[in-house]
Model the fold of this input.
Amino acid sequence: MKLITTDNQSIQSTINMNGHKLLQQVRFTMIRLFCHFGNSPARVGPVALLLFFLPNLARGQATGEQAWALDIHGRVRSHYIRQDTIRLEQLTDSVCAIQPLTPMARGACAECRGFGHLLYKQFEQAGQAYEQAAGYFAQAAYPYLEAQGLNNAGWAASCIQQHTQADSLYERAARVLTDNATERADSILLCYVYSNQITIYEVIANYILVFDKAIQMLELAEQIPDTGQIASALESLMLVYRKFGEMDNAQQYKDQLCRIYETPGKYYNPIESMAHKMFFVQSEQEAEAYLHRAEDYLAKASGSGGYGIEQVYYNYALAMDRFNQPERAALYYQKTIDTNQGRFEFTRFSTFWSYIYLADIAIQQEQYPKALAIGREILPQIENMEDLSMQRELLTQLSTAFFHTGQIDSAYLYLQQASLLQDSIAKTSNDKDFMRTHMEYVFEQEQEIQRLQRAQEQALVAAQVLRQRQLLIASLVSLGLLGAFLYYYRRNYKSKLASEKRLQAANQQLQRSNQKLDRFANSISHDILSNIDLLLSTGNILVEPHHNPSSLQHYYRQSKQTLSSTKDYCLQLLKSARERDGQATQEADTNSILQQALEHNKLALDTYAPEVTYDTLPPLPIPEGDLLQVFQNLLSNAIAFAGPQPDGHIAIRTENTPSEIRIGVLDNGPGIPEDQLESVFEQGISFKQDGNGQGLAFVRDIVESYGGRVWAERSALGGAGVWIAFSSALHRSGNHLMLN
Done:
């Protein structure tokens, strides 16, 4: 829970809002100097009183008093943090000596006394003083300080386990802020109040209230926005979902939290992030990895920025318990306890649960005296926690340990107490099914609120449109001929714009059609004619002076296969050419297309017999006909350069990065010179003896027309490598690409 204070920046912003800043700053600076250096009321003297009650406008007087009260709050808070009893008492005496006392001065005096009581752990007296301060600030009509006093009174009540009273005070503070919030500081203070209420609800195991208040806190923190408050709300929501086994929903809050802790800045803490991730591990190896990373980071940080390592140990121990590794779990429960020494107030829950789980492991290992020793040591402290589930768990373990050590009466007594606690928990805590239903109901309410908000926005837009129309009609009537002229001019102008847009669209359509026609013509000139040349060159066997029937049969089979592949290729090409512009593109089966391309180049592959290897390829958002053309051209080039090699090797590889899907065709041929890796994609540039420089240029046109990119590099095989790549977002979106 948080004792709310105000920093100097908030004080300064309040002063700056005053319309009479100069006079107020001089007057209250003098008062602060007297309060700061005064040892007794006599040293404040009439000079301070004269300065405080200088004639002023009412608004300036109120704003100045508020700034003074905020400054007193900042001073007394700093003395409290440093445990500086002497200076705090001096400041209290100085403030409380101001006469005559206005409500604002009375409130400042009561707040000083409240901090003084806190120094001596007098929580009941501190709560009374803070509540008095809130009453005086309410009389002074300053809601911010009133809510701050109520919150601090609630905090004091919670320190002595008066949870009902504390919650009532927090509710009053929240109402004051909700009704009067005008500045960012008010919203931040309201977030702190919500956070304190959440702590109360967690202690009494009322997770419905934890969930509801955390939702309110998250919405408010996101509106401000305030990263620290957002993280606090996410922590509480994740706790509720984890408590009731809703791990999928807990996971999404964990991801948001980890992004906050892993982003450099005020809240950067990788150890805290790893502590949250540890709770969701699926294997011992994953848990070990997070543990080592956290310890390595702590070692490199040299003691700074290591807050959260105890939670890493605790969650690691829980994971080992889940994976049935009691020895390692016990070791890290003990590490959690040892690490928490010295800051027990902030880590009491993980500390106590570590003790309880250590006792449970001792019982599992039949070390009953050890379990009794642990349980007896922490039972008094856990009884002061007022966490019923924690008490019930410990009492059950003590009953088991007493039973196995032959102390039947004690075993029965503790078992009876555990049963009574179970009845109380059943009456006051939340059933899992009911909680899940409630969370679903809250989500439905949020959706309904969003639907109503959209309907309201639409109604406002419709009303605004109606008012605009009425205004236009009134203007036309009042202006007469001038209005009519403007109306017709506007209509003609819009018609002209529409015509220009249609003409532009038609030109773009024509340009895309011409591009498709060029690709079609290039495909015919390059791929189909290449196949014809292949048949003609293979047909030289017919004019040989001595040819045997087996050669003729081989020529017949190769010719038939080449013509069949060419026919299929033409059909695919025609299908792609006939598709209309704007038609959605289905993802092509890349592996099937690759097999067709390999079959098409079978004659050359059989002739040179290079080794061909390929990965399982992902689907690509290109029409099948165009993708077949890409693969045939890339394979043709690879065969031409790798085929004549004595150990020719061609590899089709795929790589996935977070942003792209890549497919490459690699060979071990002579490769491409470094200074010509870019120019190989230009028309007319070729490194083959009989090449026409169309193939790679054709590949680039196809790939780029569907939003991809293509490049050449030296391959891992030693020769050339040509890669095509498409955005992962386009791949995941399925049918979002359009034919052009």
User: Anything to note?
Assistant: Strands lie at 611-614, 649-656, 660-667, 709-714, 720-727.
